[in-house]
Amino acid sequence: MRARAGRNLFIGLAIMLGVSFVAGSFVLADSLKATFDNLFTSLNANVDLEVRRTLTVDVTDAQRDPVPAELVDQIAAVEGVGVVEGQIQRFAQMLDSDGKPVSTQGAPAFGISWHGPGGTSSVVVKDGRGPIAAGEVAIDKATADKVGYEVGERIAIVFDKGQESFEIVGLVGLENSDGFGGATIALFETETAKQVLDWGGQYDVIDLTVADGYDQAEVQAAIREMLPDKTEVVTGQQVGEEIADGINEIIGVFGKGLQVFAFVTAFVSAFIINNVFGITIGQRLRELALLRAVGANRKQVRRLVIIEALVVSVTATFVGVFGGLVVAKGLIALFEAAGAGFPATPLIMNPPAVIMGVVVGVGVTMLSVLIPAYRAARIPPVAAMRPEVGFSSLGSNRRLLTGSIVTAVGAIMFLVGLFVRPGGSLGLIVLSGGGTLAIFLGISSLSATVARPVAGAIGTPIRKLFKVPGQLAVDNARRSPRRTARTASALMIGVALVSAAAVFASSLRDTFARILDRSITADYILTDESFLGLPTGVVERLDAIPELSAVSPFRFMFANVNGVPDAPDEQITAVDPVAFPQLADLDVVDGDFQKLVDGDGVMLLDKKAEELGVGLGDTIDITYQNDETGSLVVSGIFSDASLGSKWYISIDTFEQASDQAPRDQFVLARLADGASPDVARPLIQAAVDEFPQTKVQSNAEFRAEQEAQINQLLAIITGLLSMAMLIAVVGIAIALALAVFERTREIGLLRAIGMSRRQLRRAIRWEAVIVSVFGAVVGVVVGLFLGIALSYAVPNSVIDGITFPIPIIVIIVLAAIFAGVFAAWYPARKASKMDVLEAIATE
Amino acid sequence: MSSTTSAPPPPSALVAAAGALDARKTYGLGDAVVHALDGVTVSFEPGRFTAIMGPSGSGKSTLLHCLAGLDDLTEGAVFIGETYLASLDDKKLTELRRTQVGFIFQAYNLIPTLTAEENILLPLMLGGDTADPAWFDEVVRTVSLKDRLKHRPSELSGGQQQRVAVARALVSRPTIIFADEPTGNLDSNAGGEILRFMRQAVDQHGQTIVMVTHDPYAAAHADRVIFLADGKVVHEMSDPSADGIIDRMKQIGH
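The joint structure predicted for all components is written out below.
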């Protein structure tokens, strides 16, 4: 009876853990999405209609052109229109009291026009008042709290035109939040805004309300009638949804990552739950046979097994689902520790979180128990009298065969999914994801056939080092190869995914380094943190430095090629055609960047030219993102796509095609021959002094930072997957604790004939290490395969060679050893504390 | 009977391999108290084979466990060689079991993952010692296991497994071997073999053996039989015969 309680406790623990992590991942993903959705829909809650320029591409980064100011009066004249407010929202970088830019960790830094309360704005004044005069600003309370600004203090703010100082008259936020999802917001009275934000007689958008008693759709239709070309009127709700969609596209990647993680944990948990049942089935069968012997019929036996499993799994799942909230909190803490700034995220639990929890908790448990239950009912009562009861499991040869087939099918699915991609991205996900699962299942099954020799090989140094305890550890690890394989497989999955990510990331990193070496000949790269781009003043200042021989901006716009059905959104990059060839080497095969000077020319990637069927001198008709059309003449063909863009035009062409205030995504600069970096660098730094958001980096520094970012991404992936590995380690601990339980008598005997507690603990500890290292080794092998395939599947311009992450693999194996030691802690302690006499007396 | 129930001669560490002095072991409290050992004083001379007999619940197994350092007394003392067990911590006690005590249990005597040879050598290897090859060969020859050394327990018969256990107990030349119903799980042929091996170890190598049994024919192999009832020594017999033992058991009320 005690054995049964202990067994169910372990099973319950395995289920609970698995369910917690699955539910937790869903809770976190859902909560983040809801938080951002709320934020951005509430941002536009008071806007009934918005007038704006049309945008013909579906790209999150694409900026709309502004609308002419005179539209405000025309719209106000339309019947049914209430308040009309032209909005200006441009770059405005706050500085802290030390004059350093306030970091937004990638979120935008905006200055916004403020028309006062009661209009279309949802901004709420939390402290002080709104700005009503020149020289006044209200900033978002979240930033003020973070940086330590208070009402009445002065703040310096950097605009494209330069830096100005303001008095903080108020702190603002949204109804339910002090912040704007990480962005910094500075509000200015409208006339001030026009001036400091350099509005150029144009509003970014015009927001309006519908007067009481008028129908929104009718007013919208009336406005649509009077609007000029390439301008549209949409509901505030739609705008909110669009922004939320855009943000979700970004955090969606993160959410998808979390969901992948949830499935991984679910899969690993399933392994462990199934394994625990597999281990306990022997004891269970003996009990059931005893029941049969004393007169229970098959149906009763079956019912008993199922009810027991149901009670355990439902209880554990129930606890586990709530544990999901704890896991979600823990994950948030983890990300914040890693430096990610989340807005305050109230946790919500949607049905999918609970459903997945139940599927994993109850579903997997019932599957793990149902088949044995039916077979258990069929075992003869006499089996109770036999010392060893077990099912004839699959023979070694058959397991080898099934394992090989499943692995092979999985590998083929995975490769076809990656390289052929039938059915687009859905096919990619279903095939490569399903293939990966099949590989894991197949390898797990194959592992059982190699567990004995591999455990022996891993154990050789342990046996040499620790004599009897070492030998017992090795022998016990080899004792039940199926159990060892299954226990190790849970760890194998996590290790495989981490190794795959490591191969991919290190290949990506090294490819990137090679691209920088080969393609970028610039000595300096200037960027800004908020990704809003640098003001054009940066290039102007650099042009004046004689130590620099070439300076070019790198500016993005989007367009579609006319006459192509479902034309994809093309990213067009504008550069200085004279300077650029000195700053980047894109393997020009025909024509010349210089020809772009003539205007309306384009340098085209060879593959794109081939796809469009154009050559040197041909004309391509395109529609820019703002619905303006243009014709570009092919001035040249290049073959190196590694900088990301397939189209290069001149800055002049760019400015003719767009009304927006130009912003440069990067600025590249090259040292003049013979100029010293020691002289040039301080000059550059001084030149951009008035734009403190500018980050000046040498080629090497830029590369180091990009590499560091890839490493950080890898660290986050590893951090997430280590949760799955933690579950696997707990799985090893549970399997080992059950083994200790089973071997009670043997342990008693060992202790009786003179094994010390320390030797016993050592034997158990090293058994765990062998199992975990086994899992890690198999995992690394599988992971290398997955990672290499993945790296080959992406275009050459992204990854052009495989880098084996040797240090990471070494760390994984070392971590596996520690994981084993950690997993053995409880079982070893339990074993060494066992009463010798009681243990010997155990039947 | 009065002559044989008189107190045994006082034990001396110098003349006894092991022994108990007024050993008491009680379970439970108040009215429910059970005296498993109720003042047992006994000593086991070196080089002799002693059997302990008694009905179920007489305390014979408890006495054996306490003597072997697997269980502790409520009152009184036990000693092995010149060591009083109560003074030892777990580490010392483990070492004593490994170096001075040999065990033969009723069943499940062997570690299933180890070969017969490894099982035999286990106590020595646990202490980091190696066996004297001549002695090892001698022991293996004594129990006739030469051609079974590389087999694992699952490949051995019950009798063979028990012979491995005997060899394991002998190989470290312990001060004393405790055997708890060593033939209880064997048929009479295999059981007789085990008893003959134990007898031989005593006669040829001067090994001290204490065996708990309820089988008069097994006890007849011993030099001396001690009868226990209700936690007390009630009788003692030297050079016993099976018939004599059976008669005595009837008197005790087996």
